[in-house]
Specification:
Length: 368
C-alpha cells in the first residue's frame, strides 16, 4: 500500500520540482514549430485559374520595428500588466505604455496633490519603505531600496532551496494640471538588482515587459492603498454626519446673525442638508465651493390625524425660496439664513426657527 502511494505521487513531485520560474513564464511545449519550413504558395499550372483564397485568417506582415526574435523560450506568455484605476475619479489613457494613472478632484476638503502625496507616503510607511528624496514643488519622490527575499525550488535531484533576493527603487512623478483638479501619477523603475544564487541581474538586463510589470505592480499597490484610505475616510465621515452636532446663535465672519455649528465645514455641509430635509425644506441647488444652498420651504408633512388635534410642526416661515451660506469660522461652521434676494433674515425670525433647527441638528442617526 505504501509502495503504491509513492508510485502515484512520484510523477507529481517530479513535475512540481521541474517547474522553474522561467518555465512558468513560457508555453508548455517543445516548440516543434520552430523546426517547420514555411509553407510554399500554391503553384498553378499555366492555363488554369488559381482558386479563390480567403484572407480572413491571414497573419499580417511584421512591421519594421517589430521584434523578430521573440520565438520559443524567448516568448513569454504572461498576461499583460494593466494599471487598475480603482480610486473614484481615476482613469487611464488608452494605449499609453508608461505606468500612469490620472486622478480627478472629487473632494474639495484638501488640494488634490496633497491627497495623492499623502496616500503614497502613507503606503510607503506602512510597508516599511524609506524615502530617498521628496520634492513636492518639483513633483518628484524617489523611494529607498525595497528588498524582497524568497526561496526557489531547485531541480528534482537537488532538494536544497536557492535564495533569490530582489532590490528595487522607484521614482514617482506627479504632474498637476494648471487648474489643480486633475493630476497624473507616473512611476518609473529607477534601479533593480536581482540575485539568484551566484547570478545577478540589473535593470539594464530587464526587457521592456519586465520593467513595465514591476512599475505597474507597485503603482497598483499604491492605488489600492489610496482606495482603502478613501473607503475608511468615507465610513468615518458617515458616522460623524449621523452623530448629533451642537449649534448656537451667533454671528458669522462679517458680524451678521447666523447659526454656529460646532463641527468641521465638510461634515456640517452634509449634516445641514439632512436637517433641512427633516424640517420640510427642498434643496434645489447647491455650490459647495462657495458654500451656497438654494432651498424652498414646503412645510412639514402632516396628516388628517395631526389636524384633528391641532398639531402644527411648520416653522414660522413663508413657503418660498431661501438661501443658506456656509462659511468656516476657525474650527466651526457659520450658517447664514437669507431670503431669495440674498437679504439676511431678521434676527427675530432667526431666533424663532433656531430651536427646531438646533434640536434636529443635535439629534443622532438622521436618515442619510
Amino acid at each position: 500500500m505504501i509502495r503504491h502511494s509513492l508510485f502515484v505521487l512520484s510523477p507529481l513531485l517530479l513535475l512540481a520540482a521541474c517547474s522553474s520560474p522561467h518555465e512558468r513564464r513560457i508555453a508548455n511545449d517543445d516548440f516543434a514549430y520552430l523546426k517547420q519550413d514555411n509553407r510554399q504558395s500554391l503553384k498553378v499550372p499555366p492555363g488554369l485559374n488559381p482558386p479563390q483564397q480567403s484572407r480572413e485568417y491571414q497573419i499580417p506582415e511584421l512591421g519594421p520595428n517589430a521584434p523578430r526574435d521573440l520565438l520559443g523560450e524567448k516568448l513569454q506568455v504572461l498576461s499583460p500588466s494593466l494599471v487598475l484605476p480603482l480610486v473614484t475619479g481615476s482613469h487611464v489613457e488608452e494605449g499609453q505604455r508608461s505606468a500612469t494613472v490620472y486622478f480627478d478632484q472629487v473632494d474639495d476638503s484638501q488640494p488634490l496633490d496633497t491627497s495623492v502625496w499623502g496616500s503614497l507616503i502613507s503606503y510607503l510607511e506602512e510597508q516599511g519603505i524609506g524615502v530617498d528624496m521628496f520634492d513636492k514643488e518639483a513633483g518628484t519622490l524617489v523611494t529607498d531600496w525595497m528588498l524582497m527575499e524568497t526561496e526557489l525550488d531547485s531541480g528534482w535531484f537537488d532538494w536544497t532551496p536557492t535564495e533569490r533576493s530582489v532590490g528595487k527603487r522607484f521614482e514617482f512623478k506627479l504632474n498637476v494640471k494648471p487648474h489643480g483638479r486633475t493630476a497624473a501619477l507616473n512611476v518609473r523603475l529607477k534601479d533593480y538588482l536581482e540575485t539568484v544564487g551566484q547570478q545577478t541581474r540589473s535593470a539594464e538586463q530587464l526587457d521592456a515587459d519586465d520593467i513595465r510589470r514591476n512599475e505597474v505592480d507597485i503603482l497598483n499597490r499604491v492605488i489600492g492603498h489610496y482606495q482603502t484610505q478613501l473607503q475608511i475616510a468615507d465610513i468615518r465621515k458617515v458616522r460623524q454626519i449621523r452623530q448629533g452636532m451642537e449649534m448656537q446663535l451667533g454671528t458669522n465672519g462679517k458680524g451678521e446673525p447666523a447659526f454656529i455649528v460646532d463641527g468641521d465645514y465638510d461634515i456640517a455641509w452634509t449634516r445641514i442638508q439632512l436637517v433641512l430635509r427633516k424640517l420640510g425644506f427642498n434643496v434645489k441647488d447647491l455650490d459647495k465651493s462657495n458654500g451656497l444652498l438654494f432651498v424652498s420651504y414646503e412645510g412639514g408633512e402632516s396628516s388628517w390625524w395631526d389636524s384633528l388635534f391641532g398639531n402644527d410642526d411648520d416653522l414660522p416661515l413663508d413657503k418660498q425660496e431661501y438661501r443658506l451660506h456656509l462659511t468656516r469660522v476657525e474650527n466651526k461652521t457659520a450658517i447664514t439664513f437669507m431670503d431669495n434676494e440674498s437679504n439676511n433674515l431678521p434676527e427675530t425670525l432667526l431666533s424663532g426657527i433656531f430651536k427646531p433647527f438646533s434640536s434636529t441638528m443635535a439629534a443622532d442617526n438622521l436618515d442619510i
